[in-house]
Every structure is written in C-alpha cells, then in structure tokens.
Automatic annotation (TrEMBL), chains A, B:
InterPro entries: HTH_LacI, LacI/GalR-like_sensor, Lambda_DNA-bd_dom_sf, Peripla_BP_I. GO terms for molecular function: DNA-binding transcription factor activity; transcription cis-regulatory region binding. Residues 10-64 form the HTH lacI-type domain. Pfam families: LacI, Peripla_BP_3. The keyword Amino-acid biosynthesis does not apply. Keywords: DNA-binding, Transcription, Transcription regulation. SUPFAM superfamilies: lambda repressor-like DNA-binding domains (SSF47413), Periplasmic binding protein-like I (SSF53822). This is LacI family transcriptional regulator.
DNA sequence: CTGAAAGCGCTAACAC
DNA sequence: GTGTTAGCGCTTTCAG
C-alpha cells in the first residue's frame, strides 16, 4: 500500500517522501519561503495535512539558534499584580511569536538562579524580570555579559537607572498624586505605610509622599510612618500598629494596593469607618482595588504597558535595535478616585 | 595562547577541546553518567566552569526526544483561582525538572488551538488542562490519539468522566457542605447563584445544593435561582437581580468564590448587612475569600492538590505508568466558616 | 575508562 | 523550481 494516511509522529522527511519531493521543498512550502510551483505546493500541503504533520519547534529552534520562548521572572504569581503583568507580557510575546516560561522566584529555593542558569539563552532567548526590589543584579549582569538579552521592568526610579535595559515609570509622581489628593481633601494628619525599607523599592513612592507633605507645610513625623513588607498581611499588621499608636490620623498613604487592602481591613477591624473616619489611598490599581468595599482610591500605574514594553524591548535587544543602556519610559500615573477617600470629619 | 578563559557561547565541544578529552567524556561528567576517572572529572569540571559553559537544553531535548517543559492551559491567569493553581503546578513540575509554558485561552483568538498545535508534543511533552467548562475536547482527544499525554484537572464530576485522564474532586459534596451549613444555621429561604448553565461546569455543585434542599424539605423555586457566568462582575449583577426580585431570601449559595465576592458587594450596595440580613456561602476558598470583610464562608476544594496531581499524572503518563483511563481523586472538600454566614435574623 | 561515529528534525546555503 | 550538502549541540550506540 502506497498511502500512509495518518502518522502521529510524522517528520518533515515523511511528508517529503510521501509527497515525492525533498525535505527542503516541504520546509519552503510550510514556511512560505523560496519559490515553489503551485502544484507542488498543493501536493505538499495535502500530504502534510493527511499525515497530520506538525513541525518540531525544538529542532527548528536548534538550527535557527533562536528559541520560541522568553523567560519571565516574578516574585510570586499569587500576588495579584503579577497575573495582570504576566497576562499582558504573554499577549505581547505571542505577538512576537513567542511563548512564556515563568519563574516564581519566591518559591524557588535558590531565588531563581537555577532557572536563569538553565533557561536563559538556552530554552529562552531572553529574560524579562519584573522588579520586586530584591533582584539578583550580579546574576543578571553576568547573563547580559554573556550576550543574553535581559530587561528589567517595573523599574521605579527613572533618575537612578540600573546597568541593564529597563522599563520605568515615575513612582515619585505616583506618590505625589496620591498624597496631593489627600491634602486637597483637607487632610493634615496623614500617616504612611510603606511596603519596603525607606530606600527600598518603594523609596520613590515614599519620596513623593515626603515632597507633598513638605510642600503642604505638614511636619512629617516618624511616628506616623511604618516601613514593612509588600503584602496584604504586612499591610494589615502595620495598619493596626499605626492606627493604635496614632488614632488621630485622618488619612493614610500606603505605597501599594495589596498592603492598602490589608490596611482597610485593619481599620475596619479597629472600628474605623472608611472613608468617614479615615481615608486610605495607595498606588497601583490592581483588580482587587475596585472590588473592595469601599473601592480603593489609588494611583494607577501602567502595569500592562510596562509588561508589553518589557517584552518589546527584549525583542528589540535581540534584534540589535536596542542597547544595554536603553531605557523605556511609560505613561504617567493617574489618580483613580473611589470610595476610600473623603474630606476629614473635622472639615465637614 | 593555550588558555581560552571565558567563552559566553561555549559548547560542549569547546570544553572537550580545552580539557583535552572527547565530547562524550564531558557529557558523562556533566550528567554524572558512565565511568570517568576522578582526575579527568576534575579537569573537565574546571574547564567547564572557567569557560562558563552551560548545556543547551534545546539540543538536549532534540536528541533525547523529550522536552524540558510541560504546557498548562487555563482560561485566564487574572482569575485568582489560577495563580494558586499555576503556582502549585509550577512547583510540582520543577520537582520533575520541568518548566511550565502557560496559555491563557480566554485571550487567544483561537481559544488556545494554536498553542496546542504548536506546543504540545513539540516544545512540551504534555499538556495539563485546567477545566473551565468549555474545553476543546475534540482537539484534546486528537492530541491524545497522537500519543501526546493530556491531563484534565479540576474535573468536577467523579461519576461522569471524560475520555482523557483526569484529576477530579467531589463537587457535589462541596455543594452539599455549603448548603448544609446554611440549613443548620436555620435558613429556609435560600437562593442560588450558579456560575454556569444548569448542566455546565458547576452542575455538580448545583446538584449538591438541590440535594440538601430536598433533604431539608425546602421546596426549590426557579425564581430563587440564577444561572450566570463565573466572574466577579456576573456575580455582582446576578446578586443584584436576585436580591431585588426576592428580598425575603435570608441566604444565598453561590457556586464559586469569585462571583460570591461580587454578590457580597451587590448585597452591600443594596443596603444588606452580611451576615445580619443575608448569609452568603460559596465554594473554592481562593485567597481573596479570606481578605474580604466579612470573610467569605466557603467550602475549600483542594486546589493545590489538583494542580500537583495533574502534573504528576502527566509525568506518570509519559512514563507509561498511567493510561488514558486513569482517574485521580483528591481530598474531600471542607467547610471554612468565616464571617459571611450566621443564623437568619428571624431566629435570633 | 575513553573516543569516534551516527543522528535527533530541521533550515541555510548553494548547486542544478 | 527543486535537490543536495552541511550542521545546529547534544546524547546514544558501540569500539577500543
């Protein structure tokens, strides 16, 4: 029997043999390259279809010296910021015909070193790193020296750049917008809960807070500030701590939505009514910010844009159209007013 | 000069040449296989280190006929169930020395067909599919016929299995637990909001609801039930609709946490106080369920276990230690009581 | 214990 | 238009 119909493991060779042409012709037809007569084209296509042929992307990657994937490093996908970031990155990667390999550094015993070591430049052509304030810069630089494209996204300080191409946003402006909103509402007793050390990843957001406080001639007090970690639970604890110590605060600026949602619960559990007794504002605008009651007033940062531009930059880097000192800026942050902020009780 | 120190693109050949051995010896040393003298071993290791050699996983995959990745298909990573699932799947995959390629079917124009076509059996050895009630069974079966391992996880009906190996949990028992909790609290006027058609993915959960209602001799009324989609917003809308139409309900069973959180907001926006005026219970126990105020009473399903067992089953399948009819069961669901449920006002 | 040869599936370069 | 040759980086034979 001269007709082999369906071959679950058909290779390009099988198709070529069956169609009576060379493998190169099959390759050309399938990739739409080279010149092939319409007749042969049809025959090859039919044969491939009949055999159920599908190209082996691994083989293609090896010979082309180019992987069909990109690596994405983030701290933990269960932090609601990252699914939004990862989705946008994924879609942009797809536009460049690439799939995404994800590493949750928080849960890798080695913080992702093994992932980078194995994947970067081998399974994946480049690495997109979502900044979490605790990046293994040494390793990233080492990869870059090897010629492997590395991009850091969500870089918070446009004026203080890393030695790696990055996508940045103006975190200080975001902090300012948030606190200006409080000041304009009439608040003077404003506390701050920062999801990092003072000079950590939220340092820019904190600087924005300080700037506005100074401009408003409000004397800052360390007693009104808390530095903690960037999680719901840490926000909750810091909120309880701060509100217990400083019950006269009328508003709190939180450096990030996730801890801010924790602060909202802390306020609620302490008997505060938000926004009547206490206003809360933060930064990011993750999906849960609009699902809480009251909704969280926050300064939206361009999350999806940072993911997309991160992937694009990676692709540009691979094409030699960007360099190690390329910096990509994103749209300015914008205030999103919801129910968690109002004028202080005294002024009403 | 006989010493080439660091070579960013070193291949196994370079290491071999430099160490004065054959590539095979290098391979053996690096993989810890074959017999190599301690002396040669050390020399090879040193050379590899010095050159900064890292094996090319793509080449290895090609020759071994085995990919270092697994594919994960889910509807959308921004639905908080999936990050929890994906993280557990990722960690389990890592235990089997594999990375994860993720596809968000909701956002692929073709619902993931292209992903499967490209990735399954080529970039990835197998596919783990997180059931969302709208699976492309034809395609999955076609992959399976090709010999590509496919596993469906989060299968809701242990008594009604697909023709594909799956990881299942007892969704009907989960529905029962939830509604029994309401009945035990003294509720009789109980509504239901289901995040799928009646016989859709939440059909098992709904059947559990019906069973308990019948056992409690509560006459079910279609007017107290709503069938909608599985999202926060759809839950919100259905909640508003149901509560407006049936203001005398004292409790609502929602088939899933995400729409249940929407229902909580709907109740709040309509002036209901939860749980004083209205109890709400649902199923899943996603992270946001414990972060809402009040906390959401829910029936926890073994999310991480289903992800882990899904990956393990995939690996077993690849090793020929499982078949196309293998079914893996998971731990029974358990009730988690939080603040969203209480005895009805009348009985207090 | 170590090496040489063959080949995984595919494509780039060049011949016919 | 189409075929041939070579080789991507690695591992699996099977000799030595």
């Amino acid at each position: 029997m001269s007709s082999k119909p369906f071959n679950p493991a058909a290779t390009i060779k099988d198709v070529a043999a069956q169609a009576g042409v060379s493998v190169m012709t099959v390759s050309n037809v399938l990739r739409g390259r080279g010149r092939v007569s319409e007749e042969t084209r049809k025959r090859v296509l039919e044969t491939a279809e009949r055999q159920g042929y599908r190209p082996n992307l691994t083989a293609r990657a090896l010979v082309e010296g180019k992987a069909p994937t990109l690596a994405l490093m983030l701290s933990c996908i269960t932090n609601p910021f990252y699914p939004e970031f990862a989705l946008a990155a994924n879609l942009e990667a797809l536009r460049h015909e690439r799939h995404l390999l994800v590493c949750n550094t928080d849960h890798e015993p080695d913080g992702g070193s093994g992932f980078l070591e194995q994947v970067a430049g081998s399974l994946s052509d480049g690495v997109l790193v979502a900044n979490n304030g605790d990046l293994p810069m040494d390793e990233l630089l080492r990869l870059q020296e090897r010629g492997i494209p590395v991009v850091i996204s969500v870089w918070e300080l446009p004026d203080d750049l890393p030695d790696i191409p990055c996508v940045t946003f103006d975190s200080k402006a975001a902090g300012k917008l948030a606190v200006e909103h409080l000041v304009e509402l009439g608040h003077r007793r404003i506390g701050a809960i920062i999801g990092s050390p003072k000079h950590g990843i939220h340092g820019g957001r904190y600087a924005g807070f300080r700037d506005v406080m100074r401009a408003a001639k409000i004397k800052p007090s360390a007693a009104d500030e808390r530095f903690t970690k960037d999680s719901f639970e840490h926000g909750y604890e810091a909120g309880k701590d701060l509100l217990s110590a400083r019950p006269d605060l009328t508003a709190i600026f939180v450096s990030n939505d996730l801890p801010a949602l924790g602060v909202m619960n802390a306020a609620s559990d302490l008997g505060y009514s938000v926004p009547d007794d206490l206003s809360i504002v933060s930064i990011t605008d993750i999906i849960p910010a609009r699902q809480s009651r009251p909704g969280l007033t926050t300064v939206a940062i361009p999350t999806a844009e940072m993911a997309e531009k991160g992937v694009s930059l990676l692709v540009e880097l691979m094409a030699g159209r960007a360099t190690e000192s390329t910096v990509v800026h994103t749209s300015p942050p914008t205030l999103v007013v919801r129910g968690s902020t109002a004028a202080p009780a005294a002024s009403r």
